[in-house]
């Protein structure tokens, strides 16, 4: 029986790009692709631009979720919203268990988490490479005790989802986007997060500043290659191929890491060229720079490093085992900084 798919976050940067590329991709045989929408306007755009079937669903209503999954015979869910809270995600598992029983096929749930949840901010090790194929990644996730409440909640969400998969017999996957860049291809948000934060802060302060004293690195990935890993996973699911899942189901899309300092320098050059900042010098962190940046980003000064700094030692290995191969090297984010700045300035 052809599998029906549900994708959330169609108006977002990642979800929209996935749905847009899905339309152009020759996937293995499948049934209906449903896209979660919140308005009639989104529904029309989903039909017109993604060739997907819009669906509305109250994510707080357990009964409605279960009934919808059964009625639509949805056996694959790609959840691409709200990485920090696992409550809504948990409500899908009872329905997916019943679909599995009804159709006699495996059911699948992919949760979009984030590299930040596997970084120093979440008390993950940063003094050694942390492969997404590391057999101990789940155990690290279980024992870390983040001091920042948001990260404590987000780590808990990953744990909840894996536990729910084991309880209900649903295969789960934790997808970990990193610094994603490049133009989104969906109808909604076209820009990312961390690069946008650098531009917003610099524009308000008229300078680019470091936000912490770390000389740290972070994995990066072009939106095209990030979407390609989602599609590779979906293709393998539709082909009924065995994928690592559950406690070993971590997937990072990244060709490698770059130093924050190098990214700051390249973006400062692009911003200075446009007269957005006073000069292209990357200034050292000062007592007042986090507070100024926080005002520009709409967050407390303590949270500024989370937006555009920090250390993450994740390395992408598992995707390569299913045929994923990134087109853009890590260096490309630095080489393409001028285009990235232009994209951001035209969309903020």
Automatic annotation (TrEMBL):
Gene3D superfamilies (alphabetical): NAD(P)-binding Rossmann-like Domain
Query: A Pfam family matched by this chain, by name?
Result: Epimerase
What is the residue range of the signal peptide feature?
none
Q: Locate the NAD-dependent epimerase/dehydratase domain: which residues?
A: 5-237
GO terms assigned for molecular function: aldehyde dehydrogenase (NAD+) activity
On the tree of life, the source organism's domain of life is Eukaryota
- SUPFAM superfamilies (UniProt xref): NAD(P)-binding Rossmann-fold domains (SSF51735)
Q: Choose one Gene Ontology CC annotation of this protein and give it.
A: cytoplasm
The protein's name is: NAD(P)-binding protein
